User: Fold this.
Amino acid sequence: MSNLVMVIEDEEAICLLLSYNLEKEGFQVATVSNGINAVSEVERLLPSVIILDWMLPEISGVEICKLIRSKPDIKNIPIIMLTAKSQEEDKIKGLSAGADDYVTKPFSVPELIARVKTNLRRAPLFEEKEKILTFEDISMDLVERKVKRGDNYLHLSPTEFRLLKMLIKEPGKVFSREVLLKSVWGENIYVESRTVDVHIRRLRKVLNQYGPDYIRTVRANGYAIDKNAPADNDENND
Ligand code: CA
Assistant:
């Protein structure tokens, strides 16, 4: 696996700051300064992690994120969204577009680098020994990284894929938000527990297109995958 980080950002000062600090940490860095070339550059260079600015000329970061997630060859590359927007609504928009992580400007360089490392660490899903995980009519191919419900292929972001994998590995077990954060996002990262809820909501939306809701919300506790998820799940109808 390469250690190439791609920074898609039009502000030169931020590109320089990130390149300098990432290179100091031993990463290779490629920078792209506009939205038009971004996706073709990702396809050409196949970075291991993408840092993507929300505010770009011509095409927004959210649009680029969606484009990357729609292309089979690059859709699994972790994306860290970088933005000046701190509104909850925008954060949800970014995560819903398929971003794995979210850093608000002004950001701390060590924090961002820690997130790059976490995203790199969890990227190689192909090292899995088990190939297929199933729960009822849901199946996950860990090698090909495909998820099906019945005969329908589902599109999940890398983060949602990892969340579902955690839940499906131990059906019925309740995972606290804290445990999910640690396993899915990494130990040394500060992520609000609300972020888990956002990803669970999106995971549900995708899964429930083709069948009943098997994700159980355990109030004040966390989440489980469970065939008998009660019908009055709080977030079923989100
Ligand atoms: Ca910008």
Observations:
- The mean pLDDT is 85.
- The radius of gyration is 18 Å.
- The chain has two domains: 4-122, 132-237.
